[in-house]
Amino acid sequence: xxxxxxxxxxxxxxxxxxxxxxxxxxxxxxxxxxxxxxxxxxxxxxxxxxxxxxxxxxxxxxxxxxxxxxxxxxxxxxxxxxxxxxxxxxxxxxxxxxxxxxxxxxxxxxxxxxxxxxxxxxxxxxxxxxxxxxxxxxxxxxxxxxxxxxxxxxxxxxxxxxxxxxxxxxxxxxxxxxxxxxxxxxxxx
Length: 189
Description:
- It is a single chain.
- The protein is an alpha/beta fold and 189 residues long.
- It folds into two domains: 44 residues, no CATH class; 137 residues, Rossmann fold (3-Layer(aba) Sandwich), CATH 3.40.50.
- Helix content is 34%, strand content 15%.
- A hairpin with a 4-residue loop joins strand 9 and strand 10.
- It comes from Sapayoa aenigma.
- This is GAL3A protein.
C-alpha cells in the first residue's frame, strides 16, 4: 500500500476549531504527508502498472482540491493527475474504489458509470446532500441508492463506491460501508 496526493496548493484552509476560513496557505501533498505520517508520494509519480487497485477517500479535500465540485458542482473540473490516474486504472481494467463525495470523480471521468453517494432523497435527515445523486444522473451516470453500510459495484467499469460521510450516521456504520467497499475492490483485484 502506498499513499499519494497531488502537489498543489489547497483551495482554502479552514480553521476547524472556529469553523471559518483561515488566512494561511497550505500544500495538499504536505498536508497529506502530515496525516499519513510522512509516508506519501506525489500523485504525479503514481504508475498504475505497479498497483492492483486504487482507492480515493472522500471529504472536502476531494470536493475542493481533487476537483472543483464544492464550487462548480456537476460543471466541475478534475485535477489532471487525478484524471490521468483514474483513466490509467480504468484502461488497465483494475478496480477503483471511491467513497464519500469521491464517486463524483468517476461520474465526471467515466460517463455512463454506476456509483452511489447514498440516497437520492434526504431520508430521515440522514442524507443532507441527496441532490448530489441528481447531479450524477445529469452527468449521464446511474446513481444507485444504497445504505451507509453498503457499497455498490459497477462490474463493467470495476468501480466500487460507498457513501461514507455523505450520510449522517454513527461512525461504526460508516466504517462498515467503507469496509465493504475495500472488500469488493480486493475481490476485483
